[in-house]
Amino acid sequence: MRGILLGAVLLPGACSYSLDSEILEIRAEIERLEKSIPPEAPIWISEGPDRFDLVIEDHSERVPEHIYRHVLAKLRALKPEEADALAAGDFDREACETAPSRFRGRFWRLRGLLGDLRAEEPAGLPPGVPRVYAAVLFDARSRPMVVHLLQKPEILTLGEDHVEAKALFVKILEYTGRSGRRIAAPFFIGRTLRRFL
Predict the structure, then answer these.
(1) How far is the CA of 88 from the CAs of 52, 53, 62, 95, 106, in angstroms?
(2) Whole-model pTM?
(3) What is the tens place of the pLDDT at every residue in 40-87?
(4) Residue range 14-195, CATH number
(5) DSSP run (H or E) holding 118
(6) Are 131 and 120 in contact (CB under 8 A)?
């Protein structure tokens, strides 16, 4: 299953011809999956044969591209106050790590210290979304949470500002950090971050 690879690069050494043909096959599969999602579908499809949970794999770096694109497009269509109103409450990391499926596809309020924020332009963004803003927040126990945002937040200071986001939980992401060790972090998609005191 093709997905947005978060925090990684393609491995070198593959044959260009076979890679090109594989990319075309993957692109065709993504287009088929996207066309199977009706325009009136909710932000998160949780029922039926095309429900998103069937293709979400926790503790990996990939997010299925058709899900990523669909959530961004639906979120873009919402007014900020509509997206904020969807929050089910404060995110409970311990409970989520025990049973991520209970949290998946729902909006939660996250709070933490802003550790990183950068603009990214990954391939496969939906029309009208030229870039996303990738943020890393650290909770009270210095554990990371990764959030992709549609809108550039206000001016914030890394390592100093405490921020809040209301965002949709997608999965437990696992990636290799700069130190070389594996890190597990909840991954969310939201509209923006706001400073809080």
Answers:
(1) 19, 19, 25, 14, 7
(2) 0.82
(3) 788 999 988 888 999 999 999 999 988 999 999 999 999 888 988 999
(4) 2.40.50.140
(5) strand 107-120
(6) yes
